[in-house]
Every structure is written in structure tokens, then in C-alpha cells.
Amino acid sequence: MLAPALEAIAAAASVAAGYQTMSPTGQWYGRTFIGLPRGSKQLALTYDDGPNDPHTFRLLEVLARHNVHATFFLIGKYVGQRPDIARQLLAAGHTIGNHTFSHPLLTLKANSTIRQQLSDCRAALEDAVGAHSNLFRPPFGGRRPAVLHLARQFGLAPIMWNVTAYDWNAPPAAQIERKVVKQIRGGDVILLHDGGHKHMGADRSQTVIATDHLIARYKSQGYEFRTIPQMIESTPAHEAFASQHR
After folding, report:
1. What mean pLDDT do residues 202-220 have?
2. Domains in the chain: how many in total?
3. What is the rounded distance in angstroms from the CA atom of residue 223 to the CA atom of residue 161?
């Protein structure tokens, strides 16, 4: 009877370990930033997979109209294609971070490939805008201990999220908004997309509309929208977190 029980425990542990490689809030494999304690009146809008023409521009217009700054995790190869968009993001006061060069699932890649992906994206960002943030978001949220260890070697702080908009397949804006509203508890990092990892020009028009509605909704409830660095700096433990990722 003992052997089947041990096998069941091992199987459960394996499933849990696999889940932690993709869970946005999982912390088994190393500390990542996923937001503030529940009840905070701060929210962070984050966007993945840009820069993307024309929808990053449309998003910039919405954010400017609401006087809100967000955090954009950019794919290096798209930055190389459209460095002007990356420069406009930075000029408008938004934060930009490293989302690898070509958006692979890093849990399945060799350490040498992970290093190359981080390095090539960093080079693309530096060529486009010069200095930028030390933030990193793994594609698909996929990470294992080596991914986070290598990111730290590059001086990158891993940023995940705790609210998923499920907007990557471009559902209607009302559906995106409902998904987000169901998850908001305060202090949240919200995952949205201004681009798509498969090609430049992904349709993100519904995300732009949803962003407009979400900002209006939560501003009316007294929430403040912050960039990820601003949110981290507002926490008592920010120095300890920052020191781990220098």
C-alpha cells in the first residue's frame, strides 16, 4: 500500500511543480513582483508583446487622455523594426521592460538561449532608447529557477501579474473588462496586450477600448494608476526586493 501512496504523492508534486512554472503568482522558483497587498488603492496597467503599429499608438492616446502611465514589456525584434514606437513610449513617461527578443517559452530553452534572448532584447532596447528600466517579464509567464537566476545576472527584476485580462485572442472589449473587474482586489498588476508575439500588426483595438473603460471605472472609485517601479517603491520592502535584482 505504501508504494501507490508514494507514487500518488510524487505525481501530485510533479503536477504542482509544473503548474508553478506557468502560474503568474507562483513563488516556488524565486521571488517575483505580483502586486501590493489586497486593499491598496493602486493599480498597475501592464502591456505585453509590443511595440505594435497601430495599436500601441492608439493606447498612447487613451493613456494620455486619462493622464495615466503604464508599463510595457517589449519584444526585441519588434523594437528593432519600430524603434520610433519605443521612443514615443518612453517620451510619454511610460516604463518599458525586457520581454525577450523573440518571445520563446523559456522553460523549454537551454541556458545559453535564455542568455541570448535577454541580451538581444536589451541591446535592441538600448539601441532604440538608451537607458531603460531593469524590468523583465518572461513570455507566457514561463520560468524555472534558471530563468530567474539568469535574469538576475543581467540585473533584471522579474515582474509577473495577478490579474489576467485574457485579451490575447482579441475578444470584445466588454468581455475583457468583465474579466478584469472580476479579479480586481486592489494593489493589482493587470496583464493586457498592446501587441501579439506572432506578428506585428495584431489587432488590439478591443484592448484599447477596454483600457479606456477600465481607467474611467477605477479612477471614479478612487484608484490611482502607477507604473511598476512606482508601485514597487511604494512598498516598505522595496529596498529588499530591489537589492535582490541589482
Report:
1. 98
2. 1
3. 18
